[in-house]
Model the fold of this input.
Amino acid sequence: MAQAVPQTLPGAKREEAERHLLAAYSFMVQQRYWKALDSLEVALQNNTYLVDYYLMKGLILRRLGETAAAAEALSHYLEVRPAEHAPSRIFEALVEEVRFLEQALDGDVQGERFSIFRHTSERAFAFPGWAPFTPLGMGKMTAAGSLFFLADTEGNKTWIVREGGGFRPQILSSDRPVTVIPRNGGSFLVVGRSGDIGEASLDATGHLSGDVTPMGSLGTLVADAVSLSGNTFCVADWGERKLSFIDFPSLQVLWNWSPGTETLLQPFEPVALAGLGELLAIADRGRGRVLLLNTRARAVEAEIDGLETPRDIAWTPWGSLLILDERGDLYTWKSGTPPERLVRLEGAWTLDVLDGKPFVLHVSGKYLWEGKPFPPVNAGLFMLNLFTPSVTQGSDPEAILQGYVGFPAQEILRRQRTYTSAAWMGKQLQGNVRFLHRSAITPLVLLAPGKTLDHPGSAVLQDGGVLLPVLRRSGWDMGIVPTDIILDTGIPFSRDDLRRLLALALHNGIRIHLWAPSQIPSRFLARLMLLTGGRLLVSETLDTIVTPDPFVLEMRFPLPVDAFPSGYPSGSMLSVFVDSGEHILRDWFPFWPSGLRSAENPQE
Done:
């Protein structure tokens, strides 16, 4: 009878494993995350007992948007070391982050709040004394990029201004303009009350390139209009009590729609439109409701009742629909809940949202209300990503870290005094924080299969599942993190792909813009765009994207001179908190001074 051969555990090459662990840390410091993961795998092959592998892997995967995989890696770590405080907190944050990302894509994150402030229009838009803003009868206010288009219907002109000034107001004459449909590259359509469509544009300096160029007339009584893609826009036909979906540039009617439930006493009266991908919100003043129309299925998905006389509507990044009624009451609505009244704004006339901030214009044009958004409290927890740590030498050493901030949290940090603190080696550290300009780089353009584009930095993306390999080849794994990604709406994305992309963008301060020359984006892509501060690009050509300058945080902490961290991430974890007074942002990074000194020239 053969005797059983006892199994021997594999030997550990500790020095070799530690060398590759150090290389992984060096690559992580440089934001070369794929190289860091490669080095970690080699470290594990040399020492299968290297439990710190799972901790570092979790931290790196989170930075690549792989939140669920990061949580799984941390769970393996905690199976071996369940009592460690910082890894337990990281794991809890990752589990909560997975839930948050699902809710964000569905527009189901609760707790969005606003503080409303009133300004005079002259102050808000910096109108010069020689050109006071005196509209005769307002149409719609439309926000696009950093600009506002104010349609003075009865005054036969459109005012083009910028919130906060710094831009000379432009005045464009046309017959009874009702609204403007922004495109990109500075061009826009002016829609008149009688259905006249004209095109105009601004040059690179923000000045009008000429007068309105007539394109044709729809022959309808227009209440509002909104773009769905580059070749399709929708018009609310107040006279015929219907919606018309229009091809651009032919201006041919593609199809018409009406709910079919109107009565003589309560007719369908569409007065305002707001698009969110394929989902179109319609303010029906005749029935005192807002309808949500799926423009692909051409069917109503939801009906928001009890609004009396809605006048204007706009979507927020968190999936709320803002509704302004004739009395000046401003409501917010989320799926599954009744409309909630926020405030009454006497004389309020028209509404739009720019970079997450609602703006409401008075009927006289004299006042502008601005809403300061406060994202849901738990949302800010996931929007700080530490990178590029370094250490100063001398008798008073300091730890220096930079941090990306997710778009929804940026507005809060810009307007409020911010504090930072940290915990390291069992000690509490009080630090200083400042904002640093982050130079935008040429956007990475991701194209749908079969498309080509003569644009630097463009690549074909077969589907969302191969996003990370494409990003690695784009230069990220050399430490070049994109500030902007332009996404072709024809690229197929699964639910997991979208969650990964949203996490990656929020963690790395990346703005996701949607290029929709012909295909209407999904509502999920549209929410992702809004949550990351991106723009909807609808022209066939890709021109300059006008967005606020990105920034990063720099945090400095005095280091205790009697602290001697181990050579492993678990023994050197730095927990950082950024407190804006309204939200706390947090993140963790192994702070290993000796490893940082070796991080300057890691070996490939």
In short: The chain has eleven helices and 36 strands.
